[in-house]
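Saturday, quiet lab. Running sequence design on the structure tokens for the scaffold JK sent over.
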């Protein structure tokens, strides 16, 4: 079985062959009943016996897969909401592209983690997709958590190919954060509160001089930040079902993972 570190480039455009070669992840604790908990850990790279895959890689990629499924669910529901309908055509096109990009990421990460799907049910705070401030705050928070997760990957993944891949995806997540903050201004908001917990002005939308990790240093901390979205609670009452069969559109989208 080939090593997970070997990446296969896409050879037929952005909408084909979105997977990593030689998945050696069967024992990576990404199984039903423990799929998120199995993604915890320090993010350091130790070798999994018999597979050639790093347990640290498995943890980071598994958590990233769940994050991408959460993002796809979020953008799917948002793009069907009245808030989206109230946006101008340019903003709508941005969010449509964001949905498709997240699904491309998900399919790639699914291929890297045994071709198993992430959990299908996600839960968002009351008011999500109906109250503008709540929606923008949550979307900003999640994109900032995704950025932090991929920055941890850049530091801790065990091969240059995987680290480059994490950087490639992180850059796109940063685009999404800026998009959300642009839409916030277009929707009449003056601030949005993200992962820092402190309101920040939406002007300028691209206000990060350097991407921030907000104190997150390990993938287990990212898992903790995402865990509330995996089960219903008194505050998280809006349920969205992830569709792993969604086929993203490659129209106008370009780029390949590292080869």
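Result came back. Writing it out in full:
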């Amino acid at each position: 079985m080939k090593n997970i570190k070997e990446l296969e480039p896409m050879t037929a455009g952005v909408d084909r062959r979105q997977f990593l070669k030689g998945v050696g992840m069967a024992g990576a604790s990404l199984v039903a009943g423990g799929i998120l908990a199995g993604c915890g850990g320090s993010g350091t790279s130790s070798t999994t016996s018999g597979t050639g895959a790093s347990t640290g890689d498995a943890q980071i990629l598994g958590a990233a897969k769940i994050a991408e499924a959460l993002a796809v669910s979020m953008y799917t529901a948002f793009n069907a909401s009245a808030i989206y309908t109230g946006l101008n055509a340019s903003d709508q096109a941005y969010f449509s592209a964001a949905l498709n990009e997240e699904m491309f990421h998900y399919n790639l990460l699914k291929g890297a983690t045994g071709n198993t799907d992430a959990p299908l049910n996600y839960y968002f705070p009351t008011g999500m997709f109906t109250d503008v401030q709540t929606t923008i705050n949550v979307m900003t928070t999640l994109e900032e958590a995704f950025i932090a997760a991929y920055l941890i990957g850049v530091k801790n993944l065990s091969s240059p190919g995987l680290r480059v891949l994490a950087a490639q995806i992180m850059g796109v997540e940063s685009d999404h954060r800026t998009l959300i903050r642009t839409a916030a201004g277009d929707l009449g908001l003056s601030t949005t509160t993200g992962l820092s917990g402190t309101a920040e002005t939406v002007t300028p939308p691209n206000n990060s001089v350097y991407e921030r990790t907000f104190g997150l240093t390990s993938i287990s901390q990212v898992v903790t930040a995402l865990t509330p979205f995996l089960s219903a609670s008194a505050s998280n009452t809006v349920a969205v079902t992830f569709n792993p069969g969604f086929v993203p559109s490659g129209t106008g989208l370009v780029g390949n993972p590292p080869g």
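Notes for JK: The chain has one domain: 37-241. Residues 37-241 form one domain. Ask whether to fix the surface positions before the next round.
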